[in-house]
Design a protein that fits this description.
The chain has helices at 62-75, 85-93, 95-98, 108-115, 119-134, 147-162; strands at 2-6, 8-9, 15-16, 19-20, 23-25, 32-36, 43-44, 51-57, 77-79. The chain is α+β, with helices and mostly antiparallel strands. The protein has a single domain, classed as 2-Layer Sandwich (D-amino Acid Aminotransferase, Chain A, domain 1), CATH 3.30.470.20. The strands form four sheets. Strands 1-8-6 form a three-stranded antiparallel β-sheet, covered by helices on one side. A two-stranded antiparallel ribbon has the order 2-3. Helix 1 (62-75) packs antiparallel against helix 2 (85-93). The chain is globular and about 35 Å long. The two termini are 28 Å apart.
Length: 163
């Protein structure tokens, strides 16, 4: 599976959100490949494709890939710009997606679910999200030594010794 992390605001119709990437930490581990041409301090310009990076996940079956993808996306940290990361995390938790019942209107559920909260809650969520980005705090963080990261490094070292 491939996840395109774009500089777009999924809570505002996926409009482009150019700006400076003030913090970036990409995931690592077995079955995870990250393709990117940006780095911390880099600028996502309005004139070009808003793609920030692609995360490609490999595994033995769909459920395995989804588990790896959840861990990888939870390790990803991007600040300074809005990204499609919250949408991808929502998608991975969506029962239809998990079961492979995908259709062209599946993404519309993301906006529909947002509309089910009260206007006061929507304002509070939007304000908190804006503050996180404004103050350059990572939106989704795990410790530097997460179990996923440490296990991936251990497996990598084990394979090198076997060769």
């Amino acid at each position: 599976m491939e996840f395109r992390i774009n500089a777009e605001d999924p809570f505002n119709g996926f409009v482009p959100t150019p700006g400076v990437i003030t913090h970036l930490r990409v995931p690592a581990g077995p079955g995870i490949r990250v393709d990117s041409g940006v780095e911390e301090g880099g600028v996502v310009p309005m004139e070009y494709d808003p793609l920030v990076l692609k995360i490609i996940i490999h595994g033995k079956d769909r459920r395995h890939v989804i588990r790896r993808a959840k861990r990888a996306l939870e390790e990803l940290e991007v600040a300074g710009i809005y990204t499609t990361l919250p949408f991808h995390l929502w998608l991975l938790a969506n029962p239809d997606f998990v079961e492979g019942r995908v259709h062209t209107s599946l993404a519309e559920g993301f906006q529909t679910e947002e509309e089910e909260i009260s206007p006061e809650e929507a304002v509070a969520v939007a304000a908190a999200y804006t503050e996180l980005v404004k103050h350059h705090s990572p939106l989704f963080t795990m410790s530097e030594n997460s179990v996923w990261r440490l296990k991936g490094r251990w497996h990598s070292l084990k394979r090198r010794k076997e060769v």
